[in-house]
Request: fold
Amino acid sequence: MPLSPGQGLPRVALIGVTGYGSIYLQLIREALRRREISLTAAVIINQDQVPDIVAELRAAGTAIYPDAAEFFGREAGRVDLCLVPTGIQWHARLTISALRAGMNVLVEKPLAGSVADADAVRAAERAAKRWVAVGFQDIYSLETRWLKTQLLAGVIGELRAVSMIGLWPRSRAYFDRTTWAGRAASDDAAVLDSPLNNAFAHFVNLALFFAGDSHAESATATVESAELFRAHRIEMFDTAVVRARNHAGVRFWFGVSHAIESTRQPEILLEGSTGRIEWWHEQRCAVHHADGRRQVFPLPSTEDVRVLMFEAMLARLRDPQAPVCTTAIAEKHTRLIEEVQRAGVIHEFPEARIEWTADGESGSEIPVVRGLAEAFDQSFREKTRLADVFNPAESALLSP
Reply:
C-alpha cells in the first residue's frame, strides 16, 4: 500500500543495530538528517552493550524494544517499512512477522536459508498485500538496470555464458564472529552459510539477474556440477566451483574461495553470440561490441549502492511500481544455493597443502591452499571444473 501525500514522513523500524545492522543504522541516520523518514522503533537485544546508541535513538523519539515479539505486538499497523539486517536464520521468521504486522520489509540478503523458508515469505507477502525487498544492493544501481536493458535488447547478441569469480581471504576470526558463521543451520532454521550464500551472494545473484528473461526476473540455474572444499574447520565449505545451466542453455560458472592468499575482487563475464561484457566490482564495466567498439564506464562503490538501495525503499513506499530486488528475483539465488548443497559433497583440503598465515587485521590466521589461486585463474578462463586443472596428483588426496 503506497503512502498518500498527506501521511507525512515514512515510519521506519530497525531490528538490530550492531554487526551488519550498524550499516543500516548509518543509512537511517543520513535519512533522518535529510528529514526523509521518522524512526518509529528499534529492536536492540543487547542494549547494555550499546548505551550510546540507545540514548541517541531515545533522544530522537524512537521506541526501543528488547525483543522482536514485543515490537511486533506493540507496533503492528504503525510502521511503513521494517528493516531486517539480522543473521540468515532469522530472515524468514522476522520478515513474515513484519508482514503480518502490516509492515513492508527490507530484509538483508539472502532472502532465506532454504527454499521452504523463501516460499513461506512469498506466501506471507501475498497474504499481507505488502511488499518485501531484499538487500542485494547491486541490483539497485543505475548501471545494473541499464546493463540489464542492454542485454535484453541484444547488445551482445544471444546470451550464452555467465561466469563469476571472487577470492577473498578470510581468517579464523571471520568464522568466530557469530554463532551461525560456517553453519548449515542455527536457531532451528537453515542458514547454509558459505561464500556463495554470504560474502559473494551479491555477485551470484547479480549473475542470475543479468541472465533473467525480463527486467523483473532472474534466471533459474540447474546445477550440473558442484565442487565444494574447506580448509577452515567449519561445517560448511569455504571454496567452491559450480557449473550450471538454465532453460535457454546459458552456461553458468561460479568460483569462490576464502582459503586464498591474495584478494581477487569479484568479476562477472557475460558472453554472447556477438560480443561480451566484463564487469569488475566497484571498478568498471566494459561492453565489447561485434564491430570492435568498446564502451567502458565506472561502477559505483558499495557505499553508494547501499544509499541507492535505501532510496529505492522510499520510492517504493510512494510508488508500488518503483523497482526493487523482489522476492521473485532473490528466491532464484536461494534455489541455486540449496541445489548446490544437495549436489555437492564437501571435501577437506589436505593439511599438507595448507599454510596458515598471520592476518594483521584480525590478529588471527588465514588458510592458504598452495596452488589454489593459479588453479582458479585457469578454471575461470577455461570454465572447467577445478579438479580438471588443480594438480591432479594432489587433488586425488581429497577425501569426503
Notes: The first strand starts at residue 11 and ends at 15. The mean pLDDT is 95. The chain has two domains: 5-137, 141-305+325-395. The chain has twelve helices and 19 strands.
